[in-house]
Design a protein that fits this description.
It is a single chain. The protein is an alpha+beta fold. The protein folds into two domains: 205 residues, Gyrase A, domain 2, CATH 3.30.1360; 108 residues, Beta Barrel (Elongation Factor Tu (Ef-tu), domain 3), CATH 2.40.30. It is 23% helix and 31% strand. The strands form four sheets. A six-stranded mixed sheet has the order 10-11-12-9-3-13, with helices on both faces. The protein has a six-stranded antiparallel beta barrel with strand order 14-17-16-15-18-19. Strands 5-6-7-4-8 form a five-stranded antiparallel sheet, with helices on one face. Helix 2 packs parallel to helix 7. The chain starts with a helix and ends with a strand. The mean pLDDT is 94.
């Protein structure tokens, strides 16, 4: 994270997690969370990193590595995508889009460095360059009923449809859904944009954005869940993150076989818990004495109290899920795509 950007946010009363460098809140965590239910919020997305991929062979290289159809990723469009191991397990997930002649990949910040290094191993003689933009480029999330107005007041374009992008000068705006946007801009431009955007949008910490991710059923792979799931376990194909028409990529045979044989027993569920939980926590069921029946993916405090989460859960045990052991506290699990 750029130290100048962090200093700016600290001067704006931002409080950071000393371990992860996530921006926790702006002094009123509970109020920020409540605001996200009805108002417009703005969040520095410090939990995300950014990799740029450019060069003559960038499109071919990414198409051969990622689960989505990069060949048909048009200018002005965004895709969810994943990168699997040879065993078909997701080792990273991305929001991918084109930026001029290059491709941008936003992913969990705690996976950015390792993912970039490992992707670089597969470049070989291809004309491809991978560059970390995490320190030079800032991502902001804006969400809520006045999000589009806040963008307009800041002089930013507003994409008309979900998973589309608009680029203006050095700034890019990505529309995730009806009321959520991601702004990508150079670090030196962010202080001015922040001042304009916060006229209508209330500053909020990363936990608020994670709660919105839970509500939107967006399954972000992090270090805690790396290599835990084949894409279909996280319902990744349902958000356009997997193409079953494209050619080979790492793990493709297993991902395709899983799809066509219909043997996916685990799927994405929303959890509600009065007890604290974290990404990577195992889930158990007394009805399944042999092994864990699920894994937590994303966790956030809930506006109504307790915690909300996304988890991959074995569907036939979802009615009786317990945290960390079969004797642990029982938590509610509801299928995202029943």
């Amino acid at each position: 994270m750029n130290p100048n950007w962090r200093s700016f946010l600290e001067a704006a009363e931002g409080n950071f997690d000393s371990a992860s460098s996530d921006l926790l809140n702006f002094g009123d965590a509970a109020g920020e969370l409540q605001a996200a239910t009805t108002q417009t919020i703005i969040t520095p997305l410090t939990h995300l990193g950014l990799i740029e991929v450019n060069g003559d062979d960038a499109k071919t290289f990414l198409h051969s590595q990622l689960t989505s159809d990069i060949n048909h990723l048009a200018a002005g469009k965004a895709q969810h995508s994943g990168w699997c191991t040879a065993k078909g397990r997701l080792q990273a997930s991305f929001l991918a889009w084109r930026q001029g002649g290059s491709y941008q990949l936003a992913l969990a910040a705690d996976l950015q460095e390792a993912t970039q290094k490992r992707l670089q191993m597969f470049v070989l003689r291809a004309k491809v360059k991978l560059t970390a933009l995490t320190d030079s480029t800032v991502l902001l999330g804006v969400a809520g009923p006045q999000a589009a107005e806040a963008l307009a007041d800041a002089g930013l374009p507003c994409p008309a449809e979900a998973m589309t992008t608009v680029q203006e000068a050095d700034n890019t705006v990505i529309r995730l859904d009806a009321s959520r946007f991601v702004i990508v801009a150079p670090q030196e431009a962010m202080a001015n944009l922040w001042q304009k955007l916060t006229v209508k949008a209330r500053p909020a910490g990363v936990p608020v954005w994670r709660w919105l991710d839970v509500e939107a059923a967006y399954p972000l792979v992090t270090l805690a869940t790396k290599e835990e799931f084949v894409p279909q376990m996280a319902d990744f194909e349902k958000i356009g993150g997997v193409s079953f028409q494209k050619g080979c990529y790492p793990g493709q045979e297993i991902v395709a076989r899983t799809q066509y044989l219909g043997k996916v027993k685990r799927h994405l569920f929303r959890l509600r818990s009065a007890h604290a939980l974290k990404a990577g926590d195992p889930l158990f069921s007394p009805d399944n004495p042999d092994q864990s029946c699920g894994t937590v993916m994303t966790v956030a405090p809930a506006p109504s109290g307790g915690f909300a989460a996304l988890a991959v859960v074995q569907s036939n045990f979802a009615d009786n899920v317990h945290l960390e052991s079969r004797e642990g506290p029982q938590i509610e699990a509801v299928a995202v795509n029943p």
